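Why should sequence recovery work at all? Because a backbone constrains its sequence more than one might expect. Tight turns favour small or flexible residues, buried strands favour hydrophobic ones, and helices have their own preferences. The token representation captures these environments compactly. In the example below, the structure is given first.
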């Protein structure tokens, strides 16, 4: 087997995937991102900017399998990174005869009217039509991401304001990384698969458990979120019927991580 490339290997999911692949004995792993990794410094790293395509060709030398995780998640979502960048990556992957292109997407990209999800959906379509063997994994929101959002909005002294009726099915990031590893071992399926957390929770429930984990007595109050985006999330369009039994529950994850999350 040639080199395994992880685009976005320095991100939240990327780091978990790196450790998972290394623990499974897959040591021909290369990461690409714009900034160098602070962990896994023994791994090969290539500086690539997907929004311009700079560095893609060299980064794909000798690559057999691609996990495409990089995404313009920071500083305003960027179509150039997610759509144009994916198109350039696919072109180069075809030239290099990549045998499996694995993409991480989000449950509901095809249903929830949100700019970022539209970009992810466009990227999915590019992959489906590229003529390369592929598997797309749509995941629900990671616990790390929900924790990060709550950390940002939990800023008032006595209350936590959030759209209580939103429905999420969050999942442990490590389990998503492990699923990506299974997908690689199973070989290309040329289809979209879903992975979701063990329970569907309202944002109100998620917020209450978050507050309890911090031993706080703040009240969780509803922040009304009107319009098509809010309606779609309230209807459960970010959830799926696949419920991972391997993932910890939100409550258990909080118990394990409350120190870390609270410290952020
Ligand atoms: N977070 C969630 O709840 C969730 C749920 C389902 C699916 N996903 C998907 O999972 C993937 C990873 O999410 P994450 O939360 O781990 O993201 P993240 O922590 O924000 O990591 C993003 C990664 O992409 C790289 N990147 C960003 N812009 C780039 C560019 N122009 N060129 C090259 N690399 C670039 C970043 O490195 P540099 O900044 O150094 O370039 C970083 O390694 C994304 O595709 C996301 O859509 C996330």
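From this structural description, the recovered sequence reads:
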């Amino acid at each position: 087997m040639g080199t395994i490339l992880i685009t976005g290997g320095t991100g939240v999911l990327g780091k978990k995937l790196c450790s998972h692949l290394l623990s499974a004995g897959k040591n021909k792993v290369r990461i690409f991102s714009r900034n160098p990794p602070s962990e896994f410094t023994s791994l090969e790293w290539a500086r690539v900017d997907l929004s311009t395509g700079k560095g893609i060709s060299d980064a794909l030398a000798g690559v057999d399998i691609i996990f495409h995780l990089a995404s313009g998640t920071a500083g305003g979502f960027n179509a150039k990174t997610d759509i144009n960048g994916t198109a350039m990556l696919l072109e180069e992957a075809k030239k290099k005869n990549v045998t499996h292109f694995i993409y991480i997407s989000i449950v509901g990209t095809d249903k929830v009217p949100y700019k970022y999800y539209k970009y992810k959906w466009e990227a999915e379509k590019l992959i489906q039509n590229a003529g390369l063997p592929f598997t797309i994994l749509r995941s629900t929101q990671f616990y790390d991401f929900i924790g990060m959002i709550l950390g940002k909005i939990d800023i008032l002294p006595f209350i936590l304001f959030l759209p209580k009726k939103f429905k999420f099915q969050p999942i442990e990031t490590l389990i998503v990384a492990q699923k990506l590893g299974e997908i690689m071992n199973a070989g290309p399926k040329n289809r979209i698969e879903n992975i979701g957390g063990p329970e569907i929770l309202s944002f109100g429930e998620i917020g209450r458990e978050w507050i309890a984990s911090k031993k706080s007595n703040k009240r969780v109050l509803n922040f009304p979120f009107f319009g098509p985006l809010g309606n779609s999330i309230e209807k459960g369009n970010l959830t799926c019927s696949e419920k991972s039994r391997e993932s910890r529950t939100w409550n258990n994850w909080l118990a394990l991580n409350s120190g870390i999350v609270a410290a952020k």
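A few observations help interpret the result. DSSP finds nine helices and eleven strands in the chain.
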